[in-house]
Amino acid sequence: MAHIDAGKTTTTERILYYSGYTRSLGDVDDGDTVTDFMTQERERGITIQSAAVTFDWKGYRINLIDTPGHVDFTLEVERCLRVLDGAVAVFDASAGVEAQTLTVWRQADKHKIPRICFLNKMDKIGASFNYAVESIREKLKAKPLLLQLPIGEGKTFKGVVDVVSKEKLLWNPNSDDGKDFERKPLLEMSDPELLKEITEARNALIEQVADLDDEFADLVLGEFSENFDLLPAEKLQTAVHRVTLAQTAVPVLCGSALKNKGVQPLLDAITMYLPSPEERNYEFLQWYKGDLCALAFKVLHDKQRGPLVFMRIYSGMIKPQLAIHNINGNCTERISRLLLPFADQHVEIPSLTAGNIALTVGLKHTATGDTIVSSKSSALAACRRAEREGEKKHRQNSEAERLLLAGVEIPEPVFFCTIEPPSMAKQPDLDHALKCLQREDPSLKVKLDPDSGQTILCGMGELHIEIIHDRIKREYGLETYLGPLQVAYRETILNSVRATDTLDRTLGDRRHLVTVELEAKSLETSSLLPVIEYAASVAEDLSRASREAIENGLHSACLQGPLLGFPIQDVAITLHSLVIHPGTSTTMISACVSRCLQKALKKADKQILEPLMNLEVTVTRDYLSPVLADLAQRRGNIQEIQTRQDNKVIIAFVPLAEIMGYSTVLRTLTSGSATFALELSNYQAMNPQDQSTLLSQRSGLS
User: Fold this and answer.
1) Which residues bind GTP (predicted)?
2) Rounded to an integer, what distance in angstroms lies between the CA atom of residue 108 and that of residue 94?
3) What's the half-sphere exposure (Cβ side, CA atoms, 13 Å) at 123?
């Protein structure tokens, strides 16, 4: 995982080559890497989909997933971290921690994933090992454990020194593929200065680990307190392993994947310090007692095979022709074939055990985040075991819920546009294509706009939508048109208003009569759904059905605000009185309450809230002023300007409405040297001037 262009795919490519799984070294620039196999990825030189690869290294089986770096594809990182046991964070040694590095680091923190840092691009001009380590310490608030130091930086980068074993690793400069490198112990005679530096670094490392690990501290203080040099490397390695698993510190390695240096030691570190599936203890495993339990985390559509479902097996084993039960969908399906993922070439296998990542063919209804078990009865048995463990005392939730593994959190879309087929006859084909793409990529949401009848694509950014558009054209042969993007505003009220309403209808021989009095007022805190309160006199004699009807009515009234028809948020509603004639149907109660609330909202002082984006622009000093001037035009609110080596990092809040097409403008302003990262921050009230401009635009007056 890493920021854009830190070198994830190149590192993956080298790892596959050295582990003997590929015969030649691919290159992102030539578009022939294993894990970037989509046409769009090869053309653009970026990763779009995460690709899984299985390989072996020195007797260990490793499942590796190469993830994208762009913020638009953040879901790919999220769902892969959800099922993996460890992660390698790749850094560009000249830039240190960048915007997206922070995002993926936070995602790994959320899933409690132990990780290793790999400072890549040590051969790049301006690469600085110390700067990168310092930025990990400051920005990620992590404790870096320096297990390697580089020999030379930038053009002079030749190899690395292993701090743990006090050896230097030099790569043969004439070798094309970096397979042959030599390990030499550091000697007093040949490199006295380097040896001194490494001894100091090793002592510092030992002290650092001893602070974090009590068992190691006892060992150091007991046997080796006089001379740290005598401490065996194995003892230090097991201690680093424990500290990494406890996530109190992160091992740091360095190298240059493009120049084939430092990748083999990285693989050794992965097997040595990152956890095996047996070392991650998941509390639900004890209840399954070796029965199958897996999580589906990704779906791909294959033209020949249909939907392919990626699963992480937590316990038990999977075989072809096995019937499985999907707890989320409450349905039973049969796996027709079982494959081992290898980017886009898959290998068929007879069975797969716990801890692996499997690719299954034949599951039609399984989606991202579903929990898979062998049968309904095994799920119930696990549930009973969980109850026996005294679970009943703590949580009173439904049986199915306790068995579900936590699914995958899907980020909210921030970018909206309309998509139209070339003709109405093609609409069913477009619907089918979008349905398949949505199953593959849950961060893409497709909605039908009830007012205009248009199909709306909601995605994570411009690039995301562009790729989807391109895929529809290439994979489904449909030329579609993208329309202008609509910003999802919200509305709220500023004061408190009361309203009463009576609904009196006679349908057939039944009279429906409801009288409501309610008050709507603005909330201090932010809440998407209305907060509903009942006056004491009303709450006493409300039946459950009426209460549901009232809540439905209030929620539906809040879906369309009085100003522009956008959803209402941050509103508290108090029901003061409610008179219901006997025999009145619940739909009539809903309708009356809904109409009454709309009446109240129309009378209130209304306010439009617009989505604010948290924007981080990295730009060189020369271009700082034009970028700031442009942000000011876009109603941007500059929070701070940080310095990162020669660059300035502008942190600002900018309304989403003003950010359309920003990437192109920013590149033009800075001759392509600036980068930016966006995420939805929150909704903020528009000032009256902007609000009236927006209203006149929307009503077609301007």
Assistant:
1) 2-9, 66-70, 120-123
2) 23
3) 14
Query: Model's pTM, two decimal places?
Result: 0.70
Residue 474, number of CB atoms within 10 A of its CB = 12
- Is 123 assigned to a binding site? yes
Rounded to whole angstroms, how far apart are CA atoms 315 and 313? 6
Which position has the token pair 């971290």?
81
As a whole number of angstroms, the distance between CA 356 and CA 61 comes to 9
Q: Do residues 181 and 265 lie in contact, with contact meaning Cβ atoms separated by under 8 Å?
A: no
Distances, alpha carbon 1 to alpha carbons 41, 100, 113, 530, 585, in Å: 17, 9, 12, 39, 56
CB 524 within 8 A of CB 699: no
Q: Annotation-wise, does 222 bind a ligand? A: no
Query: Per the annotation, does 162 bind a ligand?
Result: no
Cα separation, 114 vs 474, whole angstroms: 39
69 assigned to a ligand binding site: yes
Is 15 annotated among the ligand-binding residues? no
Take residue 364 and report the two structure tokens written for it: 């039609």
Query: Using an 8 Å Cβ cutoff, are 326 and 366 in contact?
Result: yes
66 is in an annotated binding site: yes
Closest alpha carbon to 585 in 508, 501, 502, 513:
513
In angstroms, rounded to a whole number, what is the distance separating the alpha carbons of residues 11 and 262? Answer: 10
Nearest to 129 by CA among 278, 291, 256, 301: 256
Question: Angle of helix 8-18 relative to helix 263-273, nearest 10 degrees?
Answer: 90
Which residues have CB under 8 Å from 595's CB, separation 6+? 501, 503, 557
**353 known member of a binding site:** no
**pLDDT mean by block of 10 residues, the chain; 702 residues:** 87 88 81 78 81 87 86 82 89 84 84 91 88 88 90 86 88 80 82 86 89 86 76 87 91 90 90 87 74 86 82 87 85 87 78 86 84 82 73 50 67 75 89 88 82 76 85 89 78 90 87 89 83 82 84 88 85 88 86 90 88 86 90 91 84 85 75 71 86 84 58
From CA 328, how far away is CA 295, in angstroms rounded?
11
With 0-12 / 13-18 / 19 or more C-beta atoms within 10 angstroms meaning exposed / middle / buried, residue 556 is: middle
Q: Are 318 and 301 in contact (CB under 8 A)?
A: no
**68 annotated as ligand-binding:** yes
Q: Which residues contact 527 (CB under 8 A, 6 or more apart)?
A: 569, 570
Amino acid residing at 268: D
The whole-angstrom distance between residue 326's C-alpha and the CA centroid of its chain comes to 24
Report whether 541 belongs to an annotated binding site: no
Whole-angstrom distance, CA of residue 219 vs CA of residue 209: 12
E strand intervals along 186-291: 250-254
Residue 158 to residue 152: CA distance in whole angstroms = 6
pLDDT of residue 537: 81
7 marked ligand binding residue:
yes
366 marked as part of a ligand binding site = no
What's the half-sphere exposure (Cβ side, CA atoms, 13 Å) at 535? 12
What is the C-alpha separation between 321 and 422, in angstroms, rounded?
Answer: 42
- Name the phi and psi angles at 218, rounded to 5: -60, -40
CA 253 and chain centroid, separation: 25
Any binding-site annotation on 70?
yes
For 91, the token pair is: 């850094």
Separation between Cα atoms, residue 632 and residue 640, nearest integer Å: 14
6 labelled as ligand-binding? Answer: yes
Provide the residue type at 312 as one letter: R
